[in-house]
Design goal:
The chain is an alpha+beta fold. The protein contains 4 helices and 4 strands, in the order βββαβααα. It has 2 domains: 56 residues, Molybdopterin biosynthesis moea protein, domain 2, CATH 3.90.105; 45 residues, no CATH class.
């Protein structure tokens, strides 16, 4: 379950429940990003006042991803792209990719 909070109330470790978009419809931060105070500053710059964060269930899901699976997924992403994250927001994008791929691998679609 998600809850709406003011950007000023962001605490390190909170997780975005749904994408944050600017007034032009551009995605600023994807759902699943783990927040930090740097994100709060970034969102204030874009005049974002409130966001939706998860109420804790997502934290349990991300902790269930084994270190071995995370390593395999990171290697897979690295092979597909010739890019290495250099700043915290890029690292968050990698973490989101790992989470979504792990979820996809653990819940394959049945035909």
């Amino acid at each position: 379950m998600a809850k709406v909070i003011a950007v000023e109330d962001i605490q390190d470790g909170m997780i975005i429940a749904e994408p944050i978009v600017n007034r032009y419809g551009q995605v600023l931060l994807a759902s699943g990003v783990v927040l930090s105070q740097q994100h709060a500053t970034f969102l204030k710059t874009w005049n974002i006042r409130t966001i939706k964060v998860t109420a804790g269930a997502e934290d349990e899901e991300t902790s269930e991803i084994s270190e071995e699976m995370q390593k395999q997924i990171l290697e897979s992403i690295a092979q597909r792209t010739s890019w290495t994250p250099r700043i915290p927001i890029e690292e968050d994008l990698f973490k989101v990719a790992v989470f979504h791929l792990a979820k996809k691998l653990s819940n394959p679609v049945k035909k």
